Amino acid sequence: MRRLRHWGPGLLLLSPSLILLAVFVYGLIAWTTKVSVSDEHNALGSKGFVGLENYTRLFTDDINDRFTHSLKNLLLFTVVFLVGAMFFGLLWAFILERGIRAEGFFRTVYLFPMAVSFVASGVVWRWLMNPNQGENAGGLNAVLGGLGLDFAQSTWWTNPTWGMASMAIPAIWQLAGYVMALFLAGFRGIPAELREAAAMDGASTYRLYRNVIFPQLTPVALSALIILGHMSMKMFDLIMSVSGPQWLTEVPAIYVWQTLLTSDYAKAAAISIILLLLVAVVIVPYLIYTNRQEKTS
Amino acid sequence: MTTTSVAAPPPVETLEPKSKPRPRGGPGSIVKYLLALIFLIIVLMPLYVLIVTSFKSGSDIGVTSQWNLPETWTLASWEKAWNVLRPSFIRTFELAVPVAIISSLIGAANGFVLSRWRFPGADLVFTLILFGMFIPYQAVMIPLREIITTLGIPPGITTLVFVHCVYGIPICTLIFRNYYATTVPEELIEAARVDGAGLLRTFARIILPISMPGFVVTVIWQFTSAWNDYLFAIFLSNTRNGPITIALNALAGAQSPDYAASMAGALITSLPTLLVYVLLGRWFIGGLMAGSVKS
């Protein structure tokens, strides 16, 4: 009883939030799951339970394999986005970490795209990735032409095979600075003694980074990958803003929206749940891992 | 904005070098500065196009002349964009300001309980709370629309305030939990308890007065995410009652968009959050880092 009096008020203060999240996160996910196994394919409502039919049909019976197409788009986008953002983020952090005048200024500029919405930056990226080439080139193609790199001019996201790779460019632009910030915090969190000890042992700069500093950054890299990875799977605003909803650049998050417009609730719910599972596969182990780490530290 | 991940909002200065940087001479240093500068230019390129295009007019606006400075500088497109966006600009303040304040208060209370007034199973509960910030919101959107209609919450800004406050609970709780865990000594709370202070008194007298840095981070974070949100906005509002991202998308996404007005509109849309970033960058970064869950 005494113990309850001890922590009871805390739980009480927390309870409104817990109830809200229980309803609006877990409850609504359960509800969506229920819709996804029903035959609510129009505004008339549901007549019954159809098991996993809506799910299997997405993979086997979707017109033009629309769903698998959206998954392939998502995969290509995610790979390019992750590699690009990690590469530039790490490189920028490395440059700044080596000591540079006006570091704060560079940092502020590299990170500024994070403060802008995808919707706003999409407005300009749509124009920068104009597919015109040669004489009529504008945007990125004009820059490439100006640098004498005409061969690299591209049709960007309008390319049916590799278009989604181009869609990752604005995403990299927007988030490489964030990765930089994470790595920079990682670099700065490494105790100076560790570097000094390595220097005393006569380690070269290369060996210092290779054997001392980079291994310390593994947890940071893992966090960055997971954060970017889960954002990538949910990517919606950017694509809606750059290309609008259309076949070439469709990903599951947008497919849900398009399906809802036709009032096919059951199908939209099934896609949403698959999307949720994709995110959960990445996030749940990470949350468990973080929770454990915290206990041991 | 859309970033969510799980690390402590580290003491806000973590990005600052511990000792003054030691820029050295030599060829390596030239390469370093050259690279830094090239990347600086690349990052700023889209901003350049936004700005110059927004001051152009007529035949000056075209794909091939994208990189040129305006032949004649004019504010006409800014005026046009402002006239289109003004109502939603004001509505977005009505959205983002209450969201920032309410979410922060909830986050402070939750963060305090989960770090310094813990109950059995608090860690599990915390993890369950955190999961809420990673979900793709599409997975709740279908029933959410039904519930909001059933509850009779007026469509548009009121709905969005409610929704952002609910789904902002995880990140705000996380930020405050980590903040209190690193800044409030356990002994302080123990001492207050020994003196017979209850939960609310401890929170009001001891915790709130030292919570300012946490509040600055969550207020900025929630303001920015509500301001920049598009997903909830498109599902739960429209151009007549929704926030500025919806209005901007309508302005810029038309069949034959007015590029100059779109660019001016994108700048108008981004100004408040950019201003926050430039003026309060340190705390903005604090929120970003918190976004990456671990402590």
Structural class of chain B: mainly alpha
> Ranges of chain B with pLDDT <50 over ≥5 residues?
1-13
Give helix and strand order of chain B, one letter per element, not per position.
HHHHHHHHHHHH
For the largest interface, the chains and their residue counts are: A-B, 110 and 114 residues
Number of strands of chain A: 0
The global form of chain A is: flat
For the largest beta-sheet of chain B, the strand count, sense and barrel status come to: none
How many helices of chain B does DSSP assign?
A: 12
The average pLDDT value of chain A, as a whole number, equals 90
Q: Tell me what portion of residues of chain B adopts beta-strand conformation.
A: under 5%
Structural class of chain A: mainly alpha
What assembly state would you assign to the polypeptide chains in this entry?
heterodimer
From the N-terminal CA to the C-terminal CA of chain A, the straight-line distance is 31 Å
**Portion in beta strands of chain A:** under 5%
Summarize the structure in words:
The complex is a heterodimer of chains A (297) and B (295). Chain A contains 13 helices and no strands. In chain A, helix 7 runs antiparallel to helix 10 and helix 12 packs antiparallel against helix 13. With 297 residues, chain A is an all-alpha fold. Chain B has 295 residues and is an all-alpha fold. Chain B has twelve helices and no strands. In chain B, helix 1 packs across helix 11, helix 8 packs across helix 12 and helix 10 packs antiparallel against helix 11. The radius of gyration of chain B is 23 Å and the shape is globular. The two termini of chain B are 21 Å apart. Chains A and B meet through helix 1, helix 3, helix 4, helix 5 and helix 6 of A and helix 1, helix 2, helix 3, helix 4 and helix 5 of B.
Comma- or semicolon-separated keywords:
A: mainly alpha, flat, B: about 300 residues, mainly alpha, disordered N terminus
